[in-house]
User: What shape does this take?
Amino acid sequence: MSELRIETALGTVRIALATAQAPVTTAYFLDQVCRGRLSGGSIFRVLSSELSATDAGAMIDAVQFGTARGLDEERQRIVHESTAVSGLRHEPWTVSAARFAPGELYGSFFVCVQAEPSLDYGGARHPDGEGFAPFGRVVAGRAVIRRAHDLAEAGGLLKHPVPILDVSVIDPSVAAKPA
Assistant: This one.
C-alpha cells in the first residue's frame, strides 16, 4: 500500500492511501505530489468545534493541508468518490479531499481529528448532502495533527500557516535494488 510522507514545520505525518476504495481521488493526490504542488504549501486551515460560530452548520474538528495557493488553487473535476461509493467513513485520522462541488477539488485535503459523520454521504456539513471523499488514513504523526489542531483560530484560516517542507510517495511494493 502506498503512503504519503509529509514533512511540516511541526513534524512528519504519514498517510496510508486507500487506493482500492478511492482510486480516482488517490490518483488525483498522487499526481499533485508527483508534480510537486503540495511541497511549499501549508497547513492553512484548522477547524475547531470549540471556536466555530453556532450558525456554522455542522461543526467539525479537522486540519487542512494544501498547495501554496490554498483556497485560491485552480479547481479540477474528477469523479466524486463519496462514502456511499468507497465504503470509507470519516472516522478519527481519516484523510479526505476538500472540495467545493462534488468532485470539484483544489489541491487540498483535511484530516479528521475525531469521528465526523456530518462529512459522510447524507451528512449535514455540505448543503448538497453528497459528503466528502475520504482517500486515506494517518498512520504516523498523529501528535503533529494534534499540535496543528491546537493552533485553531476563530474563522478557521491560520494567520501563520504551518509550512509543508516536502511531500513524497512511499511505495513498499518497490523494493530497493542492491547496489
